[in-house]
Design goal:
790 residues; alpha+beta; 46 strands; 28% strand
């Protein structure tokens, strides 16, 4: 029940009760006497979930009842109108009303919080809050993989783990029917884009056909259910799908037919929970058996082995695909213990792990069990998980034996020793209920109840941590496979940063290293190709080229600025974007680097710190969605490298012109009384101006780029053309077009002619002007040498 005083008349008291005579009661004498003023069931149903009442601070006759919708009465609770809601029932829980300005309200629901400033005529959005309440999480085998889950009162949801755009946002997310708001979701391993969910439905995300196929319609008998029932595919046979009620069902033909493969696996009589009051216990439904199968764990090692856990505290095992079952429950597991999750070992047929939740019995300890003998004996393995963090799931890492992950009511924990000891794996994850966790290749994906999905990208280092690392002064971890994937961008006007959005995984290869102490000198990371040739070098002493905010016409946070390499003590993760060094002098771009991509293949990562070097292999694979051949990619790389090399030479020449003009301005001031020298410097200035005449068409970007003219092309136009061609050649993962190859040939030749003219100008004109400067006893003009030709 819920109770509230009317702030403007403290003797007016409202009480909402879910009972046999449920409804809204009102007292006008401070609780001495009561009157039932409304018995509308829609306003008081499910009191265990709602049961709140809020009075207006100024008017004692205005009262609100949050429920599946929120209801308002303006006559002291006698009649109610829907104040806010929709046909699905958003489930409202709390209403706050400003005591000084009652038209200003904040209303919470299972989706989030909305605010009104005009008494409910209009409301803010709840889509700007990452407050989804997910019961489970699962991923599919597409690339990039998709993440699925059913969210409380918001329906099932699917989202790619990597968005098509700069950041994952509502353009990527999509609602689903299969799974509803509470069920499991099981993506079909054999049919990408097809999922099963809920109790059960099959949904094709391609043609949007949704076919209902509940396993309970053909067999005889009555079948029990709870809010969420397990639905999982076999890891060994992608045709086989399991579903649980009090019995287990199996289909091997996509849900066309289901077979019952178990008896009732729940407790015969769980009795009455010891913490339940007599009145509530007397209101229990008839029948002793009330439990269901709450978790199903088919073995990843042996066909036919299936573990099942019930919500009334039993663990059952079959080793012959359901023909015979054995009760293998730990002796200390009593009734009303919920076996929330069982994980069959990925490496040992006899090993399994069980997470148990006893908070319904007011027991908030972490109960986690391990068996290594098919359930004949169990060990409790919760050391390090504090009280209050009761268990929702446990997962075994599929790569490193003994590495476990546990999701609890307050966060995630991990163990390196098969569960004997645990430590937090919280990082930036909010302290919240974590209901489920899956390991997808190198990523951890969690479902939270209130803070949506979270992904911990690339746990490769966790799989490699060992005792030698803590004793070493430096440690380079072997990188996981890096996929050459193009960064997302918005393909038009970008979604503004004040809109809700997620974060894409970082682009490129994650290079992890450990430094026991801050290094005395620079730390260096080098990437070498399979022939030992340098591809890219990074050092903690690098002077990173930061963009001057005055050089761009938009906020600088839209640019991808370079990441520093750290020499501080601790764990570090550095991302190589899988590109060669950008052209010298090239400016940062909104779309990122235009340097050549590294080809798919094998590379070596070399870490140097404190005079010691270590290496690890790195494999780059092509985005699986790209169908270009290696030969096409090699042709692209060859042309991109040629353009990048020429652009570096032109950029260096342009830098020389800037340096020369700066020196010439200084000499003019110093030679103010020498008319002959002044005239010579001005003549040289005009010749340099011709060489750096700005390109008037640069605002048209790639459009209008044609072949070079027969006349002399200035350095800026050559640089702009080479930059544009590099963008064109690198714009897709395929061989250059014939036109792009032809234009590149012509502009490369033109750029060489321009560079030759500039070299001649330096050689002839500088010698002459420097002779006059020496005669006047002034400092000569100098330029840095141009980079070697590529």
């Amino acid at each position: 029940m819920g109770i509230a005083f009317a702030p403007s008349n403290p003797r007016r008291v409202y009480l909402i009760a879910d009972a046999k005579e449920g409804g809204l009661y009102r007292s006008d004498d401070g609780g001495q006497n009561w009157e039932q003023v409304s018995h509308e069931r829609r306003t008081w149903q499910r009191g265990w979930y709602f049961g709140e009442v809020t009075g207006d601070p100024k008017n004692p006759d205005i009262v609100y009842l949050p429920n599946t919708s929120i209801y308002q009465s303006r006559d002291g609770g006698k009649t109610f109108n829907v104040f806010r809601g929709d046909p699905t029932g958003p489930d409202y829980h709390e209403l706050w009303i400003d005591p000084d300005e009652p038209a200003r309200m904040a209303l919470s629901s299972d989706q989030g919080t909305v605010v009104t400033r005009n008494g409910g005529e209009t409301w803010s959005s709840w889509y700007n809050q990452a407050t989804s309440q997910f019961y489970h999480v699962v991923t599919d085998n597409r690339f990039p993989y998709w993440v699925y889950g059913a969210q409380q009162d918001s329906g099932a949801l699917a989202t790619p783990s990597r968005g098509k755009y700069r950041s994952p946002n509502f353009h990527d997310w999509r609602p689903m029917e299969a799974g509803d708001e509470n069920g499991y979701i099981a993506p079909d391993p054999l049919n990408p884009g097809v999922v099963f969910g809920g109790f059960v439905a099959r949904q094709d995300l391609g043609d949007e056909q949704i076919q209902q196929m509940p396993p309970t319609i053909a067999p005889s008998g009555e079948f029990r259910r709870t809010w969420t029932l397990p639905l999982v595919f076999s890891p060994l046979d992608a045709h086989v799908l399991y579903f649980g009620s009090q019995v287990m069902f199996r289909t091997a033909d996509g849900g066309n037919s289901w077979q019952t493969i178990s008896p009732d696996l729940t407790r015969e009589d769980p009795g009455v929970p010891p913490n339940l009051d007599t009145t509530t216990a007397a209101d229990a439904p008839a029948g002793k058996r009330r439990g269901v199968i709450y978790t199903i764990a088919p073995s990843s090692v042996r066909a036919g082995e299936i573990w099942a856990g019930t919500d009334d505290g039993l663990i059952q095992l079959t080793q012959d695909e359901g023909k015979t079952w054995n009760n293998v429950t730990p002796p200390e597991l009593t009734a009303w213990s919920k076996v929330t999750h069982i994980e069959a070992s990925h490496s040992d047929v006899a090993t399994a792990f069980a997470a148990v939740d006893r908070h319904r019995l007011d027991d908030y300890q972490a109960y986690l069990y391990r068996t290594r003998d098919f359930g004949k004996s169990w060990q409790r393995i919760s050391n390090g998980i504090p009280d209050g963090s009761f268990l929702n799931c446990v997962r075994e890492d599929p790569v490193r034996k003994g590495l476990l992950y546990a999701c609890t009511e307050k966060g995630v924990y991990l163990s390196f020793d098969d569960g004997d000891d645990w430590q937090p794996l919280q990082l930036n994850l909010p302290t919240t209920s974590v209901r489920d966790l899956v390991v997808h290749e190198d990523d951890l994906v969690v479902a939270t109840f209130g803070r949506s999905f979270w992904v911990l990208d690339d746990v490769t280092p966790l799989r490699q941590i060992e005792s030698q690392m803590t004793a070493a002064s430096t440690w380079l971890f072997r990188p996981g496979v890096a996929y050459r994937v193009r960064p997302g961008y918005d393909q038009g006007t970008p979604l503004q940063t004040d809109e809700p959005m997620g974060t894409n995984p970082a682009d490129g290869a994650a290079l992890d290293y450990y430094l026991k102490e801050k290094t005395a000198g620079p730390v260096q990371l080098e990437i070498l190709d399979n022939e030992g040739k340098l591809v890219r070098r990074f050092a903690s002493s690098d002077e990173l080229r930061k963009t001057d905010p005055r050089d761009v016409a938009f906020p600088i946070h839209w640019l991808r600025e370079p990441q520093p390499l750290s020499a501080e003590a601790g764990m570090h993760r550095f991302f190589w974007d899988l590109r060669y060094s950008p052209p010298k002098g090239a400016r940062a771009s909104f779309r990122g680097s235009s340097a050549p991509w590294a080809l798919p293949g094998n590379y070596i990562v070399k870490l140097t710190a404190n005079g010691k070097s270590s290496t690890q292999p790195l494999t780059i694979k092509m985005d699986p969605r790209v169908k270009s051949s290696q030969e096409e990619l090699v042709r692209q790389f060859a042309l991109s490298s040629r353009l990048e090399g020429r652009l570096s030479e032109v950029s260096a020449a342009m830098q020389q012109t800037r340096e020369l003009r700066k020196q010439m301005d200084e000499r003019k001031k110093e030679a103010s009384g020498n008319a002959e020298l002044q005239q010579a410097l001005e003549a040289l200035e005009k010749k340099i101006e011709v060489a750096v005449e700005p390109d008037s068409d640069d605002d048209f970007m790639l459009f209008g780029l044609g072949v070079p003219s027969k006349e002399h092309e200035p350095l800026p136009k050559a640089a702009a053309a080479l930059t544009a061609l590099l963008i064109i050649v690198e714009s897709a993962d395929t061989a250059p077009t014939a036109d792009a190859a032809m234009a590149s040939e012509k502009w490369d030749a033109s750029a060489q002619e321009t560079l030759a003219r500039w070299a001649a100008l330096k050689k002839e004109e500088l010698a002459s002007i420097n002779a006059q400067l020496q005669k006047a006893k002034l400092k000569v003009l100098t330029v840095d040498a141009s980079p070697a030709a590529h």
